[in-house]
Amino acid sequence: MTTHPDELAGLTGLFSDQELQIAASVRALCAAEVEPHVARWFEQGEPDDPRGLMRKLGDLGLLGMHLQGYGCAGTSATEYGLACLELEACDSGLRSMVSVQGSLAMYAIWRWASEEEKQRWLPGMAAGEIIGCFGLTEPDHGSDPAAMRTRARRDGDDWILDGRKMWITNGSLAGVAVIWAQTDEGIRGFAVPTDTAGFTANTIHHKLSLRASVTSELVLDGVRVPGSAAFPEVRGLRGPLSCLSEARYGIVWGAMGAARTAIECAQRYATEREQFGRPIGGFQLTQQKLADMTVEYVKGVLLAVHLGRMKDAGSLRPEQVSIGKLNNVREAIDICRTARTILGANGISLEYPVIRHANNLESVLTYEGTVEMHTLILGQKLTGQDAFR
After folding, report:
1. In what order do the strands lie in the sheet with 188-193?
2. Residues 331, 362, 368, 372: which is the catalytic one?
3. Is 368 designated active site?
4. pTM over 0.90
5. CA quadruple 357, 360, 362, 364: dihedral positive or negative?
6. What is the pLDDT of residue 141?
7. What phi, psi does 153 have (nearest 5°)?
8. What element of type H or E holds 220?
9. Which of 332, 319, 333 is nearest to 377 (CA)?
10. What is the dihedral of CA 103, 367, 31, 293, to 10 degrees?
């Protein structure tokens, strides 16, 4: 008789009944609406109906679920984390859609925009009727957003934006884009309707990772928005970095979802696949792989829970999120790669989820802060020395 990793470590005992019910409801949605199709979406390079999928996610209350008011569910950070885990257990692209919508685009508007803009955008975004994207990364400036070239200049009561943003999840689907730009007052944020003249979103093709979600380039060519579109108070990197910390927190949980699926698949395969007259799960080297993967998965979930409880208590700091993002994504990739070896040649087939998760995690490892950047964030805190430059 096999034992599930969660059961082996008693992980479900860490959560309340309500937290477990939220996880179960997300898992049921994924099983019904995504899992039967996601391998084909990955192969074809896009979901069949991403807008319809976003509405279904909104119907369940998953979009901006950890935000208060404006039609948002107002859940705890831990509940949001569990939702991210279940979403990414299905596919990283699915969790990215939800994360960019809620933790980047919606959070930026919820935290920094005027009340007028909040009322304009957030209820529709929470329902999935309006899709948002988050424009920070540029073609030549990823880890160094302070060097961004996108600019916004005043023209009477309006602002005019020019520039390019790259690797923008949901970009070609969005009705509103949160754009960060250089101004004479420092970096500022803007809620830009994507039907504004001069705004173009071009879908990026030929990806070999996150293929079940939409990624785009944004081009802003003389995009004119009213003064109300500008976030009124925040200046500098404090605005975008606050949003990135929200998204990174979801990744801490989500990566463990991908890892869990890989372990489950490898565990099941090891009991069914026979070599040399018996299941490969009966050989010591296979058992060592399963044991090592499970230990790292359990440690990652425990870390996510710890950070979630701190976030719920209002004490979580950005560098602590970096610990979680750095560790959990790194370990999740290693788990998926090890699971692939248990599946042998079958491990590269989309009939099994392992290679899809491994490929997806290559993107997750990079976005919302690379391994190098999170390492240096921690190094700065440990030594008091800034080694970024």
Report:
1. 132-135, 176-181, 188-193
2. 368
3. yes
4. yes
5. negative
6. 87
7. -125, 150
8. strand 215-226
9. 319
10. -120
Question: In DSSP terms, which residues pair with 158 in a beta bridge?
Answer: 155, 226
Question: Contact, 97 vs 169, CB < 8 A?
Answer: yes
**CA dihedral in degrees (337, 321, 131, 217; nearest 10)?**
-70
Q: Outline where 318-370 has alpha helix (H).
A: 318-343, 354-366
What percentage of the chain has pLDDT greater than the value 70? 100
Other C-beta atoms lying within 10 Å of the C-beta of residue 284: 7
Question: Radius of gyration over alpha carbons of the chain, in Å?
Answer: 21
Query: What are the angstrom distances between the C-alpha of 7 and each of 13, 83, 255?
Result: 9, 19, 19
Could you report the per-residue pLDDT of 116-138, keeping only the tens digit for each? 999 999 999 999 999 999 999 99
Identify whether the C-beta of residue 66 lies closer than 8 Å to the C-beta of residue 76. yes
Q: What does the pLDDT read at residue 291?
A: 98
Which of 228, 232, 253 lies closest to 85, judged by CA? 253
- Residues in contact with 338: Cβ distance below 8 Å, sequence separation at least 6, in sequence order: 266, 289, 292, 293
Q: Left if phi > 0, otherwise alpha if psi is -120 to 50, otherwise beta: which for 271?
A: alpha
Backbone angles phi, psi at 257, to 5 degrees: -65, -45
- Per the structure block, which two tokens stand in for 257? 């979802």
- The whole-angstrom separation of Cα 137 and Cα 369 is 11
